[in-house]
Specification:
11 strands
Length: about 375
């Protein structure tokens, strides 16, 4: 089933008809009960919906999909805006904001907000005591019984594996701690803070931190097609709790594309770098414009020969059409992919309602749309 919308006619190969064919072909490579592939180029949108089950009364592109780790760019944009407003600094130490004066391990004391966001804190992917309570419910509800106060306590008693700022290790734990730290620093609950600073200013009315009204949420599925209940992320809200419609996600990416073309593209070779600002195509609010520009700026390289590049919130890869920035996410029964190409104004959103598996083509297909589309 195909649903194509375009703001204005464009010429091939970027025409809505050409984009519709491209998305339909790509969707055919993804096996899931529900699939949405959405593309925007210069504000012209093309959306393809499909899947192995009949759609419900609400169009697939208007359902709230679980984003999993694709929630992290929202957390990063929030931090960048708070920094632009002067309310926090990237170099602020998280333990000092969460528990001033409390004795903690020296390495924990050195962990900054930047370290938490860029996965250079030295923290593991999840707290050590997370697994005993999660394993018995691994396929149904691993996070729900691990609340926010437990995440904070685990951080304050942690023993980081590496000195902060020296190694990259992907960590849901760290980004969750960032969320609780920003809430403590501003005296504002995370949900309220995210809505005030990111969702409302960008007009993301269909992006939520909890399930929406009945019938408005996409249903996740196990690999065998069995439906799953909505995911409860417990205390790991900032790392993966968001739900959004593909249309809202296009709006989110279009805001980045609008400023990214003017952002600096140099890359530092160390994890810790200074904050830069300034971009073209900025939104009206200068702090939001500065934040959008900041999160598109490369800040670190890692891996063999420093081959992997990262901004504050996005993975960045080189392509024949210029750099692409992207992030993927998965929950127990859903997947999401967000990406954009600053040089050409291309943005790609993909969602699917089947749990990731070894032979899954979802991420590769969405990534190909982003990197190979002329």
């Amino acid at each position: 089933m195909t649903d194509v919308t375009a703001a204005a006619p464009v010429t091939a190969p970027g025409s809505s008809a050409a984009m519709a064919r491209l998305l339909a072909e790509a969707a055919g490579r993804i096996d899931a009960p529900d699939v949405v592939l959405a593309m925007s180029r210069g504000g012209v949108r093309t959306v393809h919906t499909g899947g192995s089950v009949e759609p419900g009364p609400v169009a697939r592109e208007r359902l709230h999909h679980e984003l999993g780790s694709a929630s992290k760019p929202f957390a990063g944009l929030l931090l960048a805006r708070l920094v632009a407003q002067g309310r926090v600094r990237y170099e602020d130490r998280a333990a000092d904001l969460l528990a001033p004066g409390l004795p903690v391990h020296p390495a924990v004391r050195r962990i900054t907000l930047r370290h938490l966001l860029t996965h250079t804190s030295g923290l593991p992917g999840l707290p050590a005591d997370f697994y005993p309570q999660a394993v018995p419910r691994w396929s149904t509800d691993p996070y729900g019984n691990y609340p926010a106060d437990r995440v904070v306590r685990a951080f304050l008693r942690a023993r980081p594996r590496h000195r902060p700022g020296t190694r990259w290790h992907y960590s849901n734990f760290a980004v969750s701690v960032l969320g609780h730290t920003l809430a403590a620093a501003t005296g504002t609950p995370w949900e309220v803070l995210l809505h005030q600073q990111v969702l409302a200013p960008l007009g993301l009315e269909a992006t939520l931190l909890r399930p929406g009204p009945e019938g408005t949420d996409a249903t996740g599925h196990r690999r065998d097609g069995t439906p799953l209940p909505a995911l409860d992320t417990g205390g790991f809200t900032a790392a993966g709790a968001l739900r959004s419609t593909p249309l809202d996600l296009l709006t989110f990416l279009e805001a980045h594309v609008g400023v990214a073309a003017g952002a600096h593209v140099g890359v530092a070779s160390e994890a810790d770098v200074g904050v830069a600002s300034g971009a073209s195509g900025s939104p009206t609010d200068p702090t939001l414009a500065a934040a959008l520009a900041e999160v598109t700026r490369p800040v670190l390289r890692r891996g063999w020969r420093h081959a992997h590049t990262h901004t504050l919130t996005w993975f960045q890869h080189p392509t024949a059409y210029g750099p692409v920035l992207f992030h993927a996410g998965a929950t127990l029964g859903q997947q999401a992919f967000l990406g954009f190409r600053p040089g050409t104004g291309l943005a790609v959103v993909a969602t699917a309602t089947r749990r990731v598996h070894r032979a899954d083509t979802f991420v590769a297909t969405a990534y190909g749309l982003l990197t190979e589309t002329p």
